[in-house]
């Protein structure tokens, strides 16, 4: 058996299964599984900033498995891939390929609270194939969504934090490996995707590319770059039916996410601009370019609209200006890179039956909804109540086909639930490992829904929103709530009296100042939590003009919701996870 000298050889891994079986009886409890023929890998993402590690995968809902292909451009003595709750190196589920200087090994492992690695007694990763090509060393393996092993990560809908590492020296045994002592990194992916073939495009589909204008990527870690593009002159009304990313070759690991916004039709002219989005000298009119037409993040595939609907583009009553925003993540501080990445829109002049729309659900952006300091977990809930949906939606209801979750830095998990008659009917979208740094959207094809109340639930955040994509388009653009302001003032008065303050500035100072003046202890946090879960709410039931629908929207009763929905069942629980559930 050869010692590694920069590459693994296929026979090294193959021989391992025969010569090393006795030494690895705990980690090689089954023979090497046969590789499926010509397995496609439709999803892929670069793992490291240079793009030297590439991960591709496919999802089989029939067998409840994920197939992984890991490509390493320059491998030395091994590589590891893992999953953990937030991308930590500790308490991670790992699969490791390593050598001891003479033999090569592959196996399932886990890391403890200090990052020490241990071989897992239950081996749930199956090695399928290895190969060496000019692109690097390829490792094909698979694993079930749920293994019923408490050491393994449960693969489910939402964000998955992937960790990776490279071994630059042999290790005598896996238990001598500590993740804190090797080169590691982290990437986020949306692993479980709806399956099925992509819809076909109409024969008269045309394309419009909204691209960065040959930008020199700044040599700093984070840059948001904005540019303005004008639609073709006298462009008639069309429907966007699909869009996809266009990434400049070589920049796949730097272009983190992109969004295309339509400017307000009330602004007749938007100046040309190409520069940092936070530049104080950028034209103020760019602030009126906020209507989302397309959103993409690293690892996302093309987005298709349903056959009966399309997103309006061009024509009377629309703006002729678009704003492209590109987030460059450049942790290696590379300089001199040029970029023309962007989004390719596919549109058709043959208008579909329905205009698609985007509606914002969740919490109103206001300091009234606050998270107390030093909280391990704190739930906030925003509602789109039945009064608003009965006022603004058609009698036949709407069809939701995708959604995009959004929070700021405190967000750790987000859930949106369909409610009718006070009973939860369906989880619209949920991400238990949410990260504000990875907001792919819109991404999830959902079941058709009818007339309903839609509350959006957020966990541990200062902001919680879900942008649902639906048809037919209505005038309801925003349906959100916050706790009634008068009841919040009663809270401040109660806590100040309890804490021995004779005078209260309640109502005289701003909400942020009043929160800052409180002495935060378990009691004040518990009372605030009780207030948010019991007090009346104020609804923002807004038209596309940003004006409220006619009616009284303050002092609304908090909707009563009975939680009856269970977590998805997995094989060890007697059930299966299906795409779109």
Automatic annotation (TrEMBL):
EC number(s) recorded for this UniProt protein: 1.14.17.1
Location relative to the cell: Cytoplasmic vesicle, Secretory vesicle, Chromaffin granule lumen; Cytoplasmic vesicle, Secretory vesicle, Chromaffin granule membrane
Residue ranges constituting the DOMON domain according to the UniProt record: 51-167
Molecular function via GO: copper ion binding; dopamine beta-monooxygenase activity; L-ascorbic acid binding
SMART domains reported for this sequence: DoH
Role this protein plays: Catalyzes the hydroxylation of dopamine to noradrenaline (also known as norepinephrine), and is thus vital for regulation of these neurotransmitters.
Protein name per its UniProtKB record: Dopamine beta-hydroxylase
């Amino acid at each position: 058996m050869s010692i590694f000298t920069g590459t693994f050889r296929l026979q090294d891994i193959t021989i391992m299964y025969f010569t090393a079986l006795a030494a690895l009886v705990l980690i090689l409890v089954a023979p090497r599984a046969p590789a499926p023929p010509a397995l496609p890998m439709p999803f892929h993402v670069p793992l490291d900033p240079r793009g030297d590690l590439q991960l591709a995968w496919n999802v089989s809902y029939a067998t409840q498995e994920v197939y992984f292909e890991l490509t390493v451009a320059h491998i030395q003595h091994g590589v590891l891939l893992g999953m953990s709750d937030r991308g930590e190196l500790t308490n991670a589920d790992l699969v490791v390929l390593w050598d001891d200087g003479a033999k090569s090994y592959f196996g399932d492992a886990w890391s403890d609270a200090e990052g020490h690695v241990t071989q897992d007694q239950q081996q749930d990763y199956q090695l399928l194939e290895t190969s060496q090509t000019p692109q690097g060393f390829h490792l094909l393996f698979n694993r079930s969504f749920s293994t019923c092993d408490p050491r393994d990560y449960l693969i489910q809908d939402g964000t998955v934090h992937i960790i990776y590492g490279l071994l630059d020296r042999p290790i005598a045994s896996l238990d001598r490996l500590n993740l804190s002592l090797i080169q590691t990194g982290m990437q986020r992916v949306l692993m479980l995707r709806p399956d099925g073939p992509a819809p076909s495009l109409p024969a008269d589909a045309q394309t419009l590319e909204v691209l960065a204008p040959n930008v020199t990527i700044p040599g700093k870690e984070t840059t948001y770059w904005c540019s303005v593009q004008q639609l073709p002159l006298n462009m008639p009304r069309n429907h966007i039916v699909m869009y996809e990313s266009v990434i400049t070759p070589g920049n796949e690991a730097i272009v983190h996410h992109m969004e295309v916004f339509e400017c307000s039709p009330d602004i007749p002219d938007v100046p040309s601009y190409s520069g940092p989005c936070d530049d104080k000298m950028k034209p103020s009119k760019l602030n009126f370019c906020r209507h989302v037409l397309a959103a993409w993040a690293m690892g996302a595939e093309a987005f298709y609209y349903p056959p009966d609907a399309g997103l309006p583009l061009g024509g009377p009553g629309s703006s002729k200006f678009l704003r492209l925003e590109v987030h460059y993540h450049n942790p290696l501080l590379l300089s001199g890179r040029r970029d023309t990445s962007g989004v390719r829109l596919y549109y058709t002049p043959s208008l579909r039956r329905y205009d698609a729309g985007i509606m914002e659900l969740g919490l109103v952006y206001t300091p009234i909804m606050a998270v107390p300091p030093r909280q391990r977990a704190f739930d906030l809930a925003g509602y789109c109540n039945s009064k608003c949906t009965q006022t603004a939606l058609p009698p036949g209801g709407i069809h939701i086909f995708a959604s995009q979750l959004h929070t700021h830095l405190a967000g750790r998990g987000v859930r949106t639930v369909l409610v009718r008659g006070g009973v939860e009917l369906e989880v619209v979208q949920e991400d238990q490992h949410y990260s504000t740094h990875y907001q792919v959207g819109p991404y999830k094809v959902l079941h058709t829904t009818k007339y309903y109340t839609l509350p959006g639930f957020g966990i541990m955040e200062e902001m919680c929103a879900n942008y649902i994509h639906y048809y037919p388009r209505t005038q309801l653009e925003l349906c959100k709530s916050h706790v009634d302001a008068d009841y919040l003032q009663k809270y401040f008065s109660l806590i100040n009296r309890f804490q021995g303050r004779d005078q209260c500035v309640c109502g005289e100072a701003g909400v942020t100042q009043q929160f800052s003046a409180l002495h935060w202890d378990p009691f004040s946090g518990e009372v605030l939590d009780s207030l948010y879960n019991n007090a009346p709410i104020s609804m923002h039931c807004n038209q596309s003009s940003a004006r409220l629908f006619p009616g009284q929207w303050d002092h609304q009763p908090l909707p009563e919701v009975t939680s009856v929905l269970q977590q998805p069942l997995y094989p060890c629980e007697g059930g299966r996870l299906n795409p779109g559930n």
